[in-house]
Design goal:
The protein is α/β, with parallel strands linked by helices and about 200 residues long. It has a single domain (about 5-190), classed as Rossmann fold (3-Layer(aba) Sandwich). About 35% of the residues lie in helices and about 20% in strands. The chain is built from eight helices and seven strands. Strand 2 (about 40-45), helix 3 and strand 3 form a beta-alpha-beta unit. Helix 4 (about 70-80) packs parallel to helix 5. The structure holds S-adenosylmethionine. S-adenosylmethionine binds near residues 42, 44, 45 and 168.
């Protein structure tokens, strides 16, 4: 698991996590635009991660790292080595849709992932959800709305991208003049611990 202090020049900067970062170009641009933040991209396709980290090294950027993992298996473990109070922003941009019902358990936004984010995001931390498929966007929003630690910033889809950079997929969708469904969730409070029956008395 990553040693965050070894990865970043200054581990105390706020951390933005991008889940399913693909080739990592979105985060690369974010790291230029927001040098006071650290950025970490998580991606299941290892060759993309190797290429993105090599590219990062060539450019000498010290606030950006890409990690090869399956977020639905490893996120909790990754967070165990995360210094407290630094995770302030998460983006899940155009996750794979997995249309067939029997494949939908492969979608990244599952209750366990939402629970992990609720446990490690700071209060006031933001989760950006974008998709070009309304059903996928709605399902992601349902998962976050179901969790008591998150509230949605607006009931309507956000009109525009409020992040300073567009992801590769968002650029491609805009070129095709197709809609993008965007929502922002904010962590309002720490999750209530699961109390045993004995503790609840
Ligand atoms: C459609 S692409 C979107 C890429 C990028 N976020 C964008 O907006 O341009 C979805 C990415 O999520 C990655 N991915 C899918 N499931 C994953 C998982 N369980 N853990 C980590 N990455 C995953 C895929 O390999 C792919 O690169």
């Amino acid at each position: 698991m990553p040693n965050f202090s070894d990865i970043y020049a200054d581990v105390n900067k706020p951390l933005h996590l991008d889940i399913g970062c693909a080739r990592g170009r979105f985060l690369w641009q974010m790291a230029q635009v927001e040098p006071k933040w650290n950025f970490m991209g998580l991606e299941i396709r290892e060759p993309l991660v190797i290429e993105a980290n090599n590219w990062r090294d060539e450019q000498g950027v010290n606030n950006l790292h890409y990690l090869f993992c399956n977020v639905n298996v490893s996120l909790g473990k990754i967070f165990e080595s995360l210094p407290t109070g630094i995770l302030k922003r998460v983006s899940i941009l155009f996750p794979d849709p997995w249309f067939k019902r029997r494949h939908q358990t492969r979608r990244v936004v599952q209750p366990k992932l939402v629970e992990d984010l609720a446990n490690y995001l700071t209060v006031g931390g933001e989760v950006f959800l974008h998709s070009d498929i309304e059903e996928v966007a709605n399902k992601m929003c349902d998962r976050f709305s179901e969790h008591s630690s998150f509230y949605r910033s607006s009931n309507d889809w956000l009109n525009e991208n409020i992040l300073p950079v567009l992801s590769e997929r968002e650029k491609a969708t805009n070129i095709k003049n197709q809609p993008v469904y965007r929502a922002l969730f904010i962590k309002s409070e720490e999750p209530t611990p699961n109390l045993s029956e004995e503790e609840q008395k």
